[in-house]
Fold this sequence. Notes:
The structure holds 2 protein chains of 2 kinds. Chain A is of the alpha/beta class. Chain A has helices at 2-15, 21-42, 49-60, 62-92, 101-105, 107-124, 128-143, 164-187, 200-216, 238-241, 243-250, 252-268, 293-297, 330-334, 358-370, 411-418, 440-449, 475-487, 503-507; strands spanning 233-235, 281-283, 303-307, 316-320, 351-353, 378-383, 397-402, 424-429, 465-469. Chain A has 2 domains: 2-271, Up-down Bundle (Cytochrome Bc1 Complex, Chain C); 352-507. In chain A, a hairpin with an 8-residue loop joins strand 3 (303-307) and strand 4 (316-320). In chain A, helix 4 (62-92) packs antiparallel against helix 6. Chain B is an alpha+beta fold. Chain B has 2 domains: 1-30; 38-51 and 79-167, Immunoglobulin-like, CATH 2.60.40. At the A-B interface, helix 1, helix 4, helix 7, helix 9 and strand 1 of A face helix 1, strand 1, strand 2 and strand 10 of B. Strand 1 of chain A pairs antiparallel with strand 1 (29-31) of chain B.
Amino acid sequence: MWSEDCLDRPFGPAWNPLYHLGGLGFFYYWVVAVSGIYVYIFFDTGLSEAYESVEYLTHDQWYLGGVMRSLHRYASDGMVVMMLLHMLREFALDRHRGSRWFTWVTGMPILWLVIICGITGYWLVWDMLAQYVAIGTTEWLDWLPIFGESIARNFLSPELLDDRFFTLMVFLHIAVPLILLLVLWIHLQRVTNPEYFPARGLALGSLLMLLVLSLIWPALSQAPADLARVPTELGIDWYYLAVYPLVDEWGAGTGWLVAFLGSLLLVVLPWLPPLRGGGAAVVNLENCNGCTRCAVDCPYAAIVMAPRSDGRPFEREAVVNTKLCVECGLCAGACPTATPFRRAKALAPGIDLADRPLAEVRRQVEAASAGLTGQRRVLLFGCDRSVPVEQLPLAEVAAVRLPCIGALPPSFIDYVLSRNLADGVFLSGCNSGDCHNRFGVHWTQERLAGTRDPHLRARVSRERIGQLWVSARERRRLQDAVQIFQDGLPTDPEDTPPPTREKAEEAL
Amino acid sequence: MSTALRYLGQGFVYAAFALILGYFASLPTYTHFPPDQALIKLSLAHGADRKGGCRRRSQEELRKLAPNMRRPMDCPRQRLPVLIELEIDGSLLYRDSLPPTGLAGDGPSQVYQRFAVAPGRHAVVARLRDSDRRDGFDYEHSEQIELAAGQSLAIDFRSEMGGFILRR
Ligand code: HEM
Ligand code: SF4
Ligand code: SF4
């Protein structure tokens, strides 16, 4: 999206907030938790005590208590913004269908829980806004035929109300955020290494922003609640309380209907329409030596290492849970047995995608290279989610597309160059902060740099490898980068690696 | 882009976000209720008499019942509806017959209604019928009230406290 490219400039992909919305959501949650504990220490439960204790924090202790209160409010608001953007983005980028449905569907209760946290929080201040929220909520709940006696009647007049309601609200305002944390944990059961905390630069920037905002524009209460008066003009927190004016406008019945149908729509969205894949990764036990690399690299926790079942002298073997697999191929890219040099037997790595096996990738690479001539032949690897590489109008460039660039074992690069199938290899894929399969680009970069298994061999001339990580919109940028890379390829025959046949590799 | 320029850019984005965050945390204000009006809430929960009186079961009927169900009197659980009228300054603001709640129709009738009225002096008359009488009311309350703008007056009912209660 355009907005992402804009933010890439000042923030760079590693700090671009749009690539870390989930992590930022967690960041705001942690700020809310810490500031909430502080505010709670000074909070008094009781009809007039509650308001007074919050006023004390805001005015008498503005330098700490007031700042904490403001942090508590603004970080809560920030959490709603991050949550909504995160949800929209996962939807817009099609990261909610197929095996990812679980993460999406568990997001729906998060939406409700976050809003309930906010509502119970505003209730506790017991100012005119709290009164409006209390009466609105109870009237809305009364519409449901579950409470025998109307609960809105508790707020008819001051003499009918007692402190019990407060005790209940304080309890809810602590219990619901804890339940939220539990559901967030469930939300992330199917992603490995989730971002529980964003990059340090992002966290620092956001905290600084919250602090400045809290000092310049401190959170204030409205007039104290008075059940003998009607709340008239109110300053409303639209992030949490927008439903109340809507229900005022529509009526309770329509409000419930919209809330119910909206939630239902969210829950069924991953199947509208269902994602038809080509099949999960499959393990080929004959070639699996139980090294665990595929399990470590799988971004969706779809591989477990099980005790060996075929009697071969290895401790463990990889087992794919097809229900969790999103068919990204990162496991094949990680498998040390996925080397194209083998000729003796068909290329059958320990783990491979069912419908896009690496043998087929090797066949495509060979076919593509056969059509190339000259001294600056480039083999361009791309992925399904970034620029469609085969559509770039470049001379002497042959393109091969993978489900994810992380599905390419580094040995393929070695293979292309050492077999003289091309003079340069260019790798492209999603913007590095924003890989559709979370770690495809990251793992590839680490494999090339030699910090992650399997390494790209040191003998491979790094001059002949180009890379660019761009979103699908940046076709022109990729085209230009490949062109520049191609023009810069050394052509001196002395420089070109001799097309050696690697006997040692053959024997493998 | 130079580092300084990048941090400047980040600062700009954070400032814009802070502005949005702070603004919608309390603005624009929302007018829930016109400030130049007063509110009357009619809210009560009251169970009317049971429908029809008790009836003595015949020997024949008793024999047909399970032994633990053989009570000589057959008393219906279902309640009558409650009829309510609210009159302000001589004109009828509300009149409704409220059916009992509960699956068996044995719960109290409930009403929760809000009326915006101009501030000032008003003659309020509330009437309620909870028996099987054909006309007239079992309870009636009339009172002169003075309402200020923004005031909320609740009209409640407690039979054990003699009928209607005006809470301000
Ligand atoms: C404050 C609330 C939320 C927080 C803190 C949160 C946090 C996260 C985090 C940390 C990730 C992992 C991303 C990564 O590290 O690569 C994630 C993934 C995801 N979230 Fe949320 N989330 C929240 C709400 C929601 C909601 C409301 C929805 C949708 C209804 C949602 C849908 C998703 C989806 C579909 C993914 C999976 C992305 C993928 O498979 O690549 N989340 N979330
Ligand atoms: S293709 Fe491999 S790495 Fe990707 S989700 Fe499936 S098992 Fe995991
Ligand atoms: S990476 Fe390959 S060899 Fe290693 S455990 Fe996975 S399938 Fe087996």
